[in-house]
Amino acid sequence: MLTIDEYIAKMKRAEKLDEFDFTKNTENMTAVVKYVMSYFNEYLCMETCDAEVIKLKHITEKLEEEIGKKYPQSKDFVLNFYLQYRIRIHKELDKRIQNELYFPFYYTEQDFSSLAEDFCNKYKIIDTDMNKYRKDIAILISEIKKCNTDVPHVSEMIRLDNRIVSWVRETYREYGVNLYAFACDLSNSYYERYVKYERGDYGRQIFQVNNYNHRYNANPFDIDRIYEDNKQRPFLENKCGELEMIVMHEWLFNCIYDDDYWSEYVNLCVSRGRVNIVKNVNILIPVTSGGLEYPADVHCPIEHIVTSDGVIKRSPKDAYILRLDVTQTHAAVWQNTEEMAALIEKMNSSFREYSAPQILEISAPIKTASFNEENFFSCCALLEKRMKKYSSMKVALLNGSGNQRSKPISSLYTIEDIIRLKAQLRERNMHIQFSIDFTALLASKKDSNYDQNGIFGELTEIKNSIVCLNINNVRPQVGNFLKVRTINDDTDVNYLNKYKYPIYDDFYSMLSSTFNDNQQRYLIPKNITNNSELETLVDNLLRSGFAFSGGGKQNE
Amino acid sequence: MNNSPNINKIRTELYDDVWSEAMIIIAKKYGVSDNGLRKRCKALSIPIPPVGYWAKKKTGKPVVEKPPLPLFTETILSNESQTYDSVVSRINHKKNNTGLLELLTFEDLSIDQIENMHGFDLMTSKSLETFTNWCNSLVIPGRLNDYDDLISKHKFEIEYREARDKEYPFRDENIILDDPLVKIRNRDNESVLPIEVSNGKRNRAYRIIDTIIKSLYNLKASISIEHTDKDNISIELLHSVVSFNMYEHKSKRRYLFDPTAVKDFSPLYQEVFNKIFQINWQISKHRYYDSLDEKPIFLSYTDSENNPLEKQVSKMIFEVYKECCNMGIAYILNSKRSNLEFEQKEDEQCAKEQKRKQKEIEEEKQDHKDALIKNITVHANDWFNYEQLNRYANELESYIETCTNEEEVQLLREYIQLVRENADKNNPLSKILQEMRANNVQVDNGY
Predict the structure, then answer these.
(1) Which residues in chain A have their CB less than 8 angstroms from residue B178's CB?
(2) How many structural domains does chain B have?
(3) B residues 328-347 lying closer than 8 A (beta carbon) to A
């Protein structure tokens, strides 16, 4: 039995009707009306067919097609149930499952059968005992779960710690549970509840207002209750913080776009012991000099010693970083391998006495008329070769200042100098690292084609080679702007947070987003004269998402 | 009321005026209302005629006698309030002459004496004792029901600000969301007392500030809040402008909590209120001072474990008032110096003027002398002409005696008369004497 559209199509084919032939427009119209009349008067008459049966047949065919692939085990049950009660039971279960917050966590037969039992007991639409279908319903629920659960994609979890990504993937592989999907559902439910679109009083601007206080919240998304309700599930055991972190990731990056908070949040989670498998981001190892003391929560195990001739004059208390400042008195060491060898010998003697430093930080050569790059690289090669025996020590070149009357211009002055040198070292297969003096580097903007954003952008490219950060106390700047995004129809939406989180647009936020990895780097405070200034620097770095290796708990 | 040196003069004048004519007429003279004048008289302790005094006097009925003008002593420590009870209490205080502070009269003191005075030298020793006892008796109440109006306004304003900021959370960014259901009007902050403490500690702050304000009123201070964009207080006290602000200290979390012990996710650098209050006072000279370049005096009082701010209020009031007294002495000294300077300048000006006039007279005299000297030859010629004509007339008269013809004699006599008249015209003596006299008169007038 054909449907009307199938009948018309059949007749059209038989009579080779071309509805796009406008010269026969009237004839075509008449023909189609004739098909319709003949369908209802001749083809579809009560004597020849039962419309209900036909309709049912169509529906069951459609249903079979729909569920055949999705729920192969439950196909017959769904069809029979439909034929018997005219109810699509899988749709009813879908509705029920939507109210089940923890359904994404279900994976055992027990989970499905208890949900099936609950469904059967509460389902009162048909006048029959649903419990007789309980087993079939449990199987159907398990199939729905399987069908609804997508494979977690790594691309969705780009800012999450690798160990969390592995945990999510492993959970999916082992239990068929997509934790990230749960996080998405949960954050979406908070989005629907707390995020409102509003217009300004003149109606010109559209604002997305977040009314949920997620920052520094001890129990965001009521995660404690969720964990308490599900802690028996093996994949969630001792993973409350990790689950919260996934939800927070989705919330920050895909719901309310407060990505500035992410690094600080991760570090807070690690330092407060809320997570076990996550590592800090933007880790700094504090280095002190001149008797400066960090706040009590920042443990500083490293001392900064400066020498100009390679001789260490006093015994370091513990581990240390040695800065070799050759710009004033020993500038020739970068041009003469013999002088470099002599300097290395002095250092070796010091290292034999006091052990080798963590980092050997050497000031870059001075840019003079007689400066020869090949000589410089020969000296670099000699230095690298002779220092290879100190396996735990890294050698780093320190950029210098330029255009100052009192000091000579460094060959490593602008970001262009650094990029070029990095490329040359790579070509020569040398593994010399960089220690970046940000005061000098940012001061070189006037002699460079790069602005501040450009400099940080370039540093991102070579961040793996940067081992020390020389930072002075820069005043933080709160950005006087709103975050704006363009939504589907080219409308700009301004993002507002009811709880007024400051938006920083300053050196620290750029520094944080430049590195943004799990690598540990040394923090060498520059031009810091007292402990109070040092504390201010530490606080600015904490706020922008840095962590101190000695501060709080560390997950290794 | 200022304790200026002219206060007694003003009082006497006003006293005479109000007892000479009806109050309404005198008020017009001073450009104030009759009620305003009554208040000023009251403030200056000037007795005024009772109601109906002038009507009775007009009809010849007996009236009360004009009372003598009492001595003026400035009342400092008084229960300044508008309630009836407190007015009665104040009057009783006055009657008993206890509990009042008296400021010294400075009219008889020399500048040197005032220069050596400091702080509480402004008041009598008895008053100082009264003041010290009063300060020591100041206690912060444990519970307060009747806050001062300024405190109530602060409470109301802070409640409004909190509700408004909840209703318009983005008003700081100049963003007002379109919401037809808003219940609270959006307006700018109204200036109130500068109290910046955490919500939980506000009642404590109110109790302390209330005590301070009431104490200042007792010291006859005039308290006001200026309409600016910042909360403020301006207290006029003894020729000084005093202001204060109270705030609660903040500490970074790292110094307050152990992050491992407290289930708290806040960052360690976050600053939170730490229950430690501080009051900063600023005492500066009144703006009507000539020299505004002098730096204000700052006093600061902070909570400590053993010495909470409540216990420091007595000391605070004592020290602030002492500084105000210092300012008062400085004001009086300044006024005295200004007066002296003014008098000296006036004397100098007078002497200068006299000298100038003397010089002018001498110059004029010299001019006259010069003019006389210049005219001497003219006078001499006139004199010789006069002498010659007189001799001629005399000789003609001698001739007449010899003459016999009556007609000739008659004609000659007429001619001689003409000669003599002409001679008199040439006589310079009267002119010379006149000029000499005029010169002498000018000299006399000059002295």
Answers:
(1) 198-203
(2) 3
(3) none
